[in-house]
Each structure stands twice: as structure tokens, then as C-alpha cells.
Specification:
Blueprint (H helix, E strand, L loop, with lengths): L1 H26 L1 H24 L18 H20 L6 H6 L10 E8 L4 E7 L4 E5 L2 E5 L2 H17 L15
Antiparallel strand pairs: 1-2, 2-3, 3-4
Helix pairs in contact: 1-2, 2-3
């Protein structure tokens, strides 16, 4: 019994880590969900196939588990289940860009944003939006981390001084950013 619990716990840990670290970073959340629905459909089909076509009795009887159904009906039931699984897999929507950009504050933000970029990573989701007044925002996991708004640019310029002060051999760059003060 203890070995069963250990195997279950190990399987849950490996499954959660491999899904979050590998599968979602390779395919994205929508495709990962589609893979899981397809795997669940396949498992259900195997289960019901074993119930509808039992291994021992070879004759068509009237017993439990669908043994009284003709082979055509049995195949039809499995075919309908497979079609339903395919439809459910295809109907999984993409992650809404508003959710990526605004997170749980989606309901409180105005609809004056235009999406420029949405991306999913292993640790965070990223979005770049542009507001009606031309201000661009960089969102990480539903929180604005940077923008082209003047008050934000002042802070970002101040933060850029820290690496320059700590660098052993700082140099001036050939480009500059002009932002209204």
C-alpha cells in the first residue's frame, strides 16, 4: 500500500512539473489543453471498448456491459464518443489577450487598448498593448511592468543608472531616447 502511495505521489510530481515546464512552454496553454482532452478521450474510448467488447465471451448475448448490442451499434457508440472528443478538443479557445494583459484586473480596465503582441513562456505571459493616446504598455502576467508614459520613463531611466554605476567599465552608447520630461 505504501508503494502505491509513493508511486502516486511521484507520478503527480513528475506530471505537474513536466506539464508546466515542458509541455506548456513547447506548445502553449491552448495546445496543452487540447492534448489533455485528446488523451482523456483516448482513455475513455479504451475503457468503453473493453466494456463493449469483453475479451472472454465471443457470442452476442444479453448480459451486462453492452454485450447484447450488435457490433455495428458498439462501433457507432465508440464513433460518436470519438467525434464528441474531437469536437471538444477543437473548441478549446485561446487564452484571451485581455487576461494576459490585465490579469484579474481585466474588469476594471477600459477597452481603449490595442493588442500588439501576446506571448506565453515557461514562467510568465507577456503582452504589449497600445492605448488610444499612443502610450505603449508592457505587461508581464497581468501587471504593467513598463510603459512609454513620461512618468514611467523617468523611473525607468533612473533604474538604468544602477547597472551603469555598478559596471566596472561603463561606456556611453551611440543611441539615445528622447522622452518628454
Amino acid at each position: 500500500m505504501g508503494k502505491d502511495y509513493a508511486a502516486n505521489t511521484l507520478g503527480a510530481i513528475v506530471g505537474a512539473l513536466s506539464c508546466s515546464i515542458l509541455l506548456i512552454s513547447w506548445t502553449g496553454t491552448q495546445q496543452a489543453q487540447q492534448i489533455f482532452v485528446a488523451l482523456s478521450t483516448g482513455s475513455a474510448l479504451l475503457l468503453f471498448a473493453s466494456i463493449l467488447w469483453p475479451a472472454l465471451p465471443k457470442t452476442v448475448g444479453t448480459g451486462v456491459g453492452g454485450r447484447g448490442l450488435p457490433h455495428l451499434w458498439r462501433g457507432g457508440v465508440l464513433g460518436i464518443m470519438a467525434c464528441m472528443g474531437w469536437v471538444l478538443t477543437r473548441e478549446i479557445p485561446q487564452i484571451p489577450w485581455e487576461l494576459v494583459a490585465c490579469g484579474r484586473y481585466q474588469a476594471t480596465y477600459d477597452d481603449d487598448k490595442t493588442i500588439l503582441y501576446v506571448g506565453e513562456g515557461m514562467n510568465a505571459t507577456v503582452a504589449v498593448t497600445e492605448m488610444a493616446d499612443g502610450v505603449r504598455n508592457f505587461h508581464v502576467s497581468g501587471k504593467v511592468e513598463a510603459s512609454t508614459e513620461a512618468r514611467d520613463m523617468r523611473l525607468q531611466r533612473m533604474l538604468s543608472h544602477i547597472p551603469a554605476l555598478l559596471h566596472p567599465n561603463p561606456r556611453s552608447s551611440s543611441w539615445s531616447v528622447s522622452v518628454p520630461a
